Amino acid sequence: MRWSGADKFSGPEFTSNHFHSWLEQHGIIHDPIDPGKPYQNGYHDSYNARLREECLNEHIFAPVPDAREKIGNWSKHYNNVRPKGTLGGIPPRDYARHLATTNKLEISLLRSGTN
């Protein structure tokens, strides 16, 4: 059966078309997880849980700019200051400094032939 004027309907088969059109217009690649493999989304689920527990549940948001500011501040803290277990319990900013220092040392050793 052929439908004309699909944008007048709101079923999932039509909203999906709108969703994919929106993705394409914004240059976003839709890369869903494989069926039966929820572990492929673990990193995102963990981040979303932290966002909800540490930010969304802790604040009352007024207008949209207020929400953007509070979530932005939390995001900066999460990405720079908050210790990460996968980085040995140090914040990403400190880990990045450590890597930069280590890499500079390795490069200078390579240049001097002291390796």
Describe the structure.
- The chain is mostly helical and 115 residues long.
- It is built from four helices and no strands.
- It has helices at 12-25, 42-56, 64-80, 92-112.
- Helix 2 crosses helix 3.
Q: Span between N and C termini?
A: 72 Å
Gyration radius, in Å: 22 Å
What is the H/E order? HHHH
Question: Helix count?
Answer: 4
Number of strands: 0
Q: What would you call the shape?
A: extended
Let me know the average pLDDT.
Answer: 79
Low-confidence stretches: 1-7
Query: Fraction of residues in helices?
Result: 55-70%
| Biggest β-sheet description | none
Give the class from helix and strand content and strand pairing: mainly alpha
Fraction in beta strands: under 5%
Short description:
The protein is mostly helical.
Question: Strands, helices and their partners?
Answer:
Blueprint: H1 12-25, H2 42-56, H3 64-80, H4 92-112
Helix pairs in contact: 2-3
Which keywords apply here?
115 residues, extended, mainly alpha, single chain, disordered N terminus
